[in-house]
Amino acid sequence: MREFCAIAATVLTLWMGGRYSYFVIRKQVRPTLTTWLIFETGIVLSLASYFSSKQPDPVSNIANVVDFVDVLMIILAITIFGKPGAWKFESYEQACLWIAGVGLVIWAVSGRPFISNLAFQSVMVVAYGPLWKKLRHAKENPESLGCWTIACVAASLAFVTGYLSADKWGMIYTARATACTLITIVLIIRVKRRSAAYTGGT
Q1: How far apart are CA 55 and CA 63, in angstroms?
Q2: Contact call for residues 165 and 2 (beta carbons, < 8 A)
Q3: Structural domain boundaries, residue 66
Q4: Poorest-pLDDT segment among 2-11, 78-87, 167-176
Q5: How confident is the prediction for the chain on average, in pLDDT?
Q6: Is the pLDDT of residue 4 over 80?
Q7: Cα 53 → chain centroid
Q8: Contact call for residues 93 and 38 (beta carbons, < 8 A)
Q9: Band of the pLDDT at 177, cuts 50, 70, 90?
Q10: Burial class (CB in 10 A: 0-12, 13-18, 19+), 116
Q11: DSSP single-letter state for residue 88
């Protein structure tokens, strides 16, 4: 069961990354590059702190491992095919990088990677802020409901993998991912309904 969930989560995550990248190329979604760069920063630091723990297991924390490839794929698509000027960091996004830096300092000083890992998880939560703000005020949906639903299902399956492995690192990572993608899905549905109501009323 553990291996099945890990494989399913891997396939779905890579499918989401490929599908989302395709939508970027076709201009069907309008992502913010800096948000995805912050995601990747948090993913890399989270993965590094995990592998510095006593007994790392790539399978039980499969989401963190596969997300590195998934998000890198999306970053490359946005960099090559996205809007110009996407590398500009807002003050909010700069704050995310500072939080990541604080996590690195905590790790270096305390030598406790788990505490630092929690800081890196918070970076990835805060990084959703610009996306959620954009969805709250959008009149038309700028994101893919299907892709974010796939991401949510993949995170849920990866959580089961972490749970069956009794891996608290994997469970924390995937619980955070599941919650954040669920919030994103709710906001996307809200935008779609608001857009449909606006169109119907004109």
Answers
A1: 17
A2: yes
A3: 2-200
A4: 78-87
A5: 86
A6: yes
A7: 22
A8: yes
A9: very high
A10: buried
A11: P
Of residues 63, 39, 45, the one with CA closest to residue 120 = 45
* Cα R_g (the chain), whole angstroms: 17
Angle (CA) 153 50 96, round 5°: 75
The distance of Cα 48 from the centroid of its chain, to the nearest Å, equals 17
Sequence-distant (≥ 6) Cβ neighbours of residue 187 within 8 angstroms: 132, 135, 136
SS3 label, residue 86: coil
Spatial neighbors of 84 by CB under 8 A, at least 6 apart, are none
Whole-number Å distance between alpha carbons of 157 and 12: 10
Mean pLDDT of 193-197: 81
CA 197 vs CA 9, 140, 143, 192, 202: distances in Å: 35, 11, 18, 9, 9
- In Å, how far from its chain's centre is CA 16? 11
**Number of folded domains that form the chain:** 1
Whether 134 has a pLDDT exceeding 50, the answer reads yes
56: Cβ–Cβ under 8 A, 6 or more apart, which residues?
A: 50
d(CA 183, CA 176): 11
> Beta-carbon neighbour count of residue 88 at 10 Å?
10
CA angle 43, 45, 48 (to 5 degrees): 105
pTM here is 0.86
